[in-house]
């Protein structure tokens, strides 16, 4: 299993747009074979940071999912939320492998 951790710097004044963006990506990851562990939004402290975690069975499975970016109409529409709203100022991805209690 490979887990993608996405670190976001967001515009706190556009949190509703970010939540719309996040809901679409949670749906798309799940629909295309991944497990979405959720988005983690600011509660207190720094108000411009958010995180997302999702997993695929392998890096190959993740790469198959990535082939849909910019091509599949649903992926394009989900990305358009980010582009048009300006809710995401910056993001980067880190790939990790989980060490689970029963693993």
TrEMBL record:
It comes from the Bacteria. It comes from Actinoplanes lobatus. The lineage of its organism: Bacteria, Bacillati, Actinomycetota, Actinomycetes, Micromonosporales. This is Catalase. Residues 7-99 form the NIPSNAP domain.
């Amino acid at each position: 299993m490979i887990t993608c951790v996405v670190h976001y710097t967001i515009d706190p004044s556009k949190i509703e747009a970010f939540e719309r963006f996040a809901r679409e990506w949670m749906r798309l990851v799940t629909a295309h074979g991944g497990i979405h562990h959720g988005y983690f939004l600011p509660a207190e402290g720094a108000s411009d940071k958010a995180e997302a975690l999702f997993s695929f069975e392998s890096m190959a499975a993740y790469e198959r999912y990535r082939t849909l970016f910019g091509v599949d109409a649903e992926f394009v529409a989900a990305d358009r939320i980010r582009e048009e709203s300006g809710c995401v100022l910056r993001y980067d991805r880190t790939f990790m492998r989980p060490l689970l209690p029963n693993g």
